[in-house]
From TrEMBL:
It comes from Methanothrix harundinacea. Keywords: Membrane, Transmembrane, Transmembrane helix, Transport. The keyword Calcium does not apply. Pfam families: Xan_ur_permease. Its main location: membrane. This is Xanthine/uracil/vitamin C permease. The chain crosses the membrane at residues 21-42, 48-69, 76-93, 99-121, 133-158, 170-189, 196-217, 247-270, 321-340, 347-369, 381-408, 420-440. GO terms for cellular component: endomembrane system; plasma membrane. Belongs to the nucleobase:cation symporter-2 (NCS2) (TC 2.A.40) family. Azg-like subfamily.
Length: 441
């Protein structure tokens, strides 16, 4: 059995072993498991039943991650994504007034078009059309984005009345975060195997100890240990109604949001983790995008917002994950929470904050390749990297990175350096930007 697993995932040639991949898969799960409760909380605001969304979230996360591991052979977790679930719930359903079953139909058609694009892209035009400097920008931006998520979930940085982020001041929470951060960082510097898992566990235990000692709420399971799955959202999408002409912009926004988010995450994680093929390109990118596209279709069928590649996958890669076995392990770990979801309510969000910040450091490794004296390369890189954390949107980083690259190269007489795909992506970025502005306003 062990030999067969090693052969399927080519562990030897990837310089890894089953123990390392399992550890990486567990680490990635701990960094992404919050979606099991957070996604239902978001979508329930749009009228979808909480328990049914939870069941759909678990099933989509398990199926899509396992598919990514078995088919694309990359250690990337796929699950219903944050930000795009807000787009689904608050913008499309609440603001635009689209019924949630029709919105699920829009997700389905977006996934179908996404899948068709990945099947037709036999010459890897999407991959070859993205300049290496923009890929480095995506990787760095995702790193800063992950670190920002960690700092904010720890209360280390907080939104101020002026609307910007500021220091959250010293408190029991921030001291707990700092203790967990230092402990985890020391383990990583000393190259202790499983340092991120140990750091997450230590921070969780410390957080519980602080809560108890300060008389705060003690971790409990008010709803009991067991929770039965709810399949009421299965096949509840409105396929015919979602094809109305007025809903094509909704399908378009879902499509490009899924495509851009997945592209940036796959490229960023592969670049940072040195998961590169013999041509120097991110490994199995076309297959990774195709697996994500299938996950989007399945998301609509099961009854949740679109799945996407998770930036927190970098936590597993940092822990040594190099093959699809890590993604398969993560996917399998989702399945028990069809029944055990109440357990997640006692795990503080603070537990993963130190790990996310340190993974952000890991993701910034591609910055060593930036030639800062070449401003027509450095400026688009900067736009892609810094706008992701500042706008809390991977999509915005891609949009402005692509637009600035294309405009600068064309304006400086270097049109030959702009592949046809970059012209297309710049145009799509403009269209997506216009649609997003219309939805917001």
């Amino acid at each position: 059995m062990i030999t067969r697993i090693s052969r399927i995932f080519d562990l030897y040639n990837n310089g890894t072993e089953i123990k390392t991949e399992v550890l990486a898969g567990v680490t990635a799960f701990l960094a992404t498991m919050y979606i099991i409760l957070v996604n239902p909380a978001v979508l329930s605001e749009a009228g979808l039943p909480f328990n049914a969304v939870l069941t759909a979230t678990v099933l989509v996360s398990a199926f899509s991650s396992i598919l990514m591991g078995l088919y694309a052979k990359n250690p990337i977790v796929v699950a219903p994504g944050m930000s795009i679930n807000y787009l689904f719930a608050y913008t499309v359903v609440e603001v635009e007034g689209v019924p949630w079953d029709t919105a699920l139909g829009c997700v389905f058609w977006a996934g179908v078009i996404f899948l068709i694009l990945t099947v037709l892209d036999k010459r890897k035009l999407i991959l070859e059309g993205v300049p290496p400097m923009l890929r480095y920008g995506f990787a760095g931006g995702i790193g800063l984005f992950i670190a920002a998520l960690g700092f904010e979930s720890a209360g280390f940085v907080v939104p101020l009345e002026s609307g910007v982020l500021g220091w959250g001041k010293i408190s029991a929470t921030t001291l707990t975060f700092l203790a967990g951060f230092i402990f985890t960082a020391v383990l990583m510097v000393r190259r202790v195997r499983g340092s991120l898992i140990l750091g997450i566990a230590a921070t969780a235990l410390l957080a519980w100890g602080v809560e108890i000692s300060l008389g705060m709420v003690t971790p409990t399971l008010p709803g009991g240990l067991w929770s039965s799955p709810d399949f009421n959202l299965l096949l509840q999408l409105d396929l015919r109604g979602s094809l109305g002409l007025s809903l094509w912009p909704v399908i378009f926004v879902f499509l490009l949001s899924c495509l851009f988010d997945s592209l940036a995450t796959c490229v960023g994680v592969c670049e940072a983790g040195n998961l590169i093929d013999e041509e120097g390109d991110p490994r199995n990118l076309s297959k990774s995008l195709r697996a994500n596209a299938i996950g989007v279709v399945v998301s609509a069928i099961l009854g949740t917002s679109p799945s996407t590649c998770f930036v927190e996958s970098a936590a597993g890669v940092q822990e040594g994950g190099r093959t699809g076995l890590a993604a398969v392990v993560t996917g399998l770990l989702f399945l028990p929470f069809l029944f055990l979801s109440p357990l997640l309510s006692i795990v503080p969000a603070l537990a993963t904050a130190p790990a996310l910040v340190l993974v952000g450091v890991f993701m910034l490794k591609p910055l060593i390749y930036v030639r800062w004296e070449r401003l027509d390369d450095a400026i688009p890189f900067f736009m892609a990297m810094f706008l992701m954390p500042l706008t809390y949107s991977i999509t915005q980083g891609i949009i402005w990175g692509c637009l600035s690259w294309t405009v600068l190269k064309a304006a400086c007489g270097k049109r030959s350096q702009v592949p046809l795909v970059m012209w297309a992506m710049a145009l799509l970025s403009l269209l997506l930007l216009i649609d997003l502005e219309r939805f917001i306003h």
